[in-house]
Structures are given as C-alpha cells and as structure tokens.
Design a protein that fits this description.
Layout: E1 2-4, E2 23-26, E3 33-37, H1 39-42, E4 49-52, E5 58-59, H2 61-74, H3 86-96, H4 105-119, H5 129-146, E6 151-154
Parallel strand pairs: 1-6
Antiparallel strand pairs: 2-3, 2-4, 5-6
Helix pairs in contact: 2-5, 3-4, 3-5
Length: 157
C-alpha cells in the first residue's frame, strides 16, 4: 500500500510539501486521485477538484476510496441553475466537515433543509430528496468497495 506523508512532491510545482494544508486533487471525469499539492499551488486551478485537508490529518485507504468515488459521482449530478440541483448541493455539504460529517450524514442533510427553507420557501426538487440523498451515498459506498484505492495519506506529526 502506498503511503503519502510530508515531503511528498507537489503535483504542480514539484517541490516537497513540508507544512501547511495539503490539498488532494481528484479527477472529475473518472474516479481517480490525481495527486497532492500545496494549498497555494492549487488555488484557482479548477480542472481538478481540490479537497483541502483542514487540519492535515490521516485518511485511510477506505476513506480515500470513498472520497475519490464521492467526487466523481458528485460531478455527475446536475448543478448550477439546473432543475434538481438540490441533491448536488445537499450532498456537497458532507465535504465541508469530512470525515466528521460521515458520523451522522442525516444531520448534514437536515442542515441543508434548514438553509433551503430559510432562503427558498419553495422546494424545487422533483422527487424524494431524502431517498435520493441516501441512494447517492449507498452508490458511492458500493463503488468504493468494488474499486478501492491502495493509498493512505498520513500528515500527522
């Protein structure tokens, strides 16, 4: 199993990452981790999806597999001003406090609903948002189990 720690090379500048908040880069068109970069090197480059580790910590191979498939599936959902974008927004909230948000994904979903009703009184989602939310998480979990990645990230010191 490959292990990524401090002193690994930045994806963009090729210098070692020695401190700060490393940013994991995921491909959006396929489930794949592209590399790790300094937070300053990855800023403003949107061809890959950045996931910043705040604070830098440890991600097991299972957590990384889940994130890798999560990002890919997230980009397959409608977003922007498209109809049914609420599913993508509700699921994306899980990344804000990952991995703590995975302890109770329903709390993240309820937080989304509170915000949604506060700012937008009408629900625009066609279908059962809660069922689709958990179906999405189940699909990601199944994909992560079928195609795991053999990399762990350990920035603990």
């Amino acid at each position: 199993m490959q292990r990524i720690t401090w002193e690994c090379q930045c994806h963009y500048c090729q210098r070692p990452i020695k401190r700060g908040r490393p940013t994991i880069l995921f491909a959006t068109d396929r489930p794949m981790m592209m590399g790790i970069c300094h937070s300053t090197c990855g800023y403003g480059r949107y061809q890959l999806d950045p996931f910043q580790m705040c604070p830098p910590n440890y991600l097991s191979d299972k957590q990384l597999s889940f994130l890798m498939h999560f990002v890919y599936w997230l980009y397959t959902l409608p977003g922007g001003m498209n109809p049914n974008r609420e599913l993508r927004i509700s699921v994306a909230r899980l990344l804000q406090e990952y991995p703590a948000s995975m302890a109770d994904p329903m709390e993240s979903f309820r937080g989304f609903l509170r915000e949604q009703y506060r700012y937008h009184q009408d629900r625009l989602y066609e279908g059962d948002l809660e069922a689709d939310y958990f179906r999405f998480l189940g699909n990601v979990q199944e994909a992560a189990r079928k195609a795991p990645v053999e990399i762990e990230i350990d920035f603990r010191k």
